[in-house]
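RECORD TYPE: inverse folding
INPUT: structure tokens
STRUCTURE:
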């Protein structure tokens, strides 16, 4: 996981509780042989302290809870941040599962990381994301419990399908593609500019 995503995930966990202090939503969708869920969390925190020597930034969340994070080298334009600036954080994660009937894909796993930062002269900001794709094979079916056993590259898991119509589509030897995506974007705004 990129360092920025990891740090901001810790930040979200530290300052975003309770959920009523943030905005966002969850979307769930299904179709024949496909299902997915996505969640978005948005929140704003205020910079209350900056230690320029250590690059430590203390942020105060919507409920008054403070957390200190270290801005690594991927945080460009660090020197432009000031106490009182607002930090907007948006975190998105999604999971999709797709049945690949007749696929000859090999069971495996792939990871793609992306990152971006503010350009010189702009207010500090960054974005990072990761997408993990796993191809698994259907190696077991239990009609009594509507459970599908999937063998992936590292382990075997049982997945209970709650929709009988989805279960009817699955056969031994089918492949399932699972894609997990997470992304975070952070931008710093001057307090006066946030009106």
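DESIGNED SEQUENCE:
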């Amino acid at each position: 996981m990129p360092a920025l995503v990891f740090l901001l995930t810790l930040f979200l966990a530290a300052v975003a509780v309770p959920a009523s202090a943030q905005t966002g939503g969850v979307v769930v969708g299904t179709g024949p042989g496909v299902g997915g869920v996505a969640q978005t969390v948005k929140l704003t925190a205020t910079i209350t302290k900056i230690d320029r020597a250590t690059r430590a930034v203390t942020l105060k969340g919507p409920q008054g809870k403070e957390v200190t994070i270290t801005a690594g080298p991927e945080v460009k334009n660090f020197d432009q941040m000031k106490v009182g600036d607002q930090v907007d954080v948006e975190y998105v994660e999604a999971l999709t599962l797709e049945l690949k009937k007749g696929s000859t894909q090999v069971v495996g796993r792939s990871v793609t990381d992306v990152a971006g930062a503010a350009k010189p002269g702009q207010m500090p900001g960054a974005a990072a994301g990761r997408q993990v794709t796993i191809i698994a094979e259907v190696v077991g079916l239990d009609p009594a419990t509507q459970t599908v056993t999937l063998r992936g590259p590292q382990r075997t898991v049982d997945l209970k399908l709650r929709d009988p119509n989805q279960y009817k589509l699955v056969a031994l030897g089918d492949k399932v593609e699972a894609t997990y995506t997470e992304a975070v974007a952070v931008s710093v705004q001057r307090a006066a500019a946030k009106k």
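NOTES: Residues 3-194 form one domain.
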